[in-house]
Amino acid sequence: xxxxxxxxxxxxxxxxxxxxxxxxxxxxxxxxxxxxxxxxxxxxxxxxxxxxxxxxxxxxxxxxxxxxxxxxxxxxxxxxxxxxxxxxxxxxxxxxxxxxxxxxxxxxxxxxxxxxxxxxxxxxxxxxxxxxxxxxxxxxxxxxxxxxxxxxxxxxxxxxxxxxxxxxxxxxxxxxxxxxxxxxxxxxxxxxxxxxxxxxxxxxxxxxxxxxxxxxxxxx
Length: 220
Prior knowledge:
By secondary structure, the protein is an alpha+beta fold. The protein contains 5 helices and 7 strands. A hairpin with a 5-residue loop joins strand 3 and strand 4 (167-174).
């Protein structure tokens, strides 16, 4: 065997020391890294990892309570107002024929007294009975106090009307149930109402007339 062949065999049986040293260093570093990774963590570091994350709570203010409902006010239903119709009394006229005094027929004589002219009876100053007269003007104002107290009703008056149609006397025949309304009706008719005067034998005369005065709230 030649020397060259012997040299080759010898290299194969002796490994490279540099390579072996590098492998040893790598293994050592890996072992050191593994030991470092497997060592227990420090207490503070472990507590940091073990402690749960902080929880943030948002405090929401409680809304204010709703306002109380308005109080319920119960109102009584208005009572139905009875409708009253004015009472009209028909005009009753008693006409009497004029009384004519006719002198007796006598024979003419030299000592005869001249005949007196016939006497015609004049019509009465006041028409008999109670009549119904037409209205010329009948303004009516509701009393303020009666309106505030919800008073209403009909007053039946007996009115003496003169020859010009002006009331000169007023009497309450049937009240409304409220003295305030009765007084107001009498005063207003006496002060400002006007009528067509009663006529007898072609002449205007005084006459008593029945006049209803109605105070109704729904008409005001």
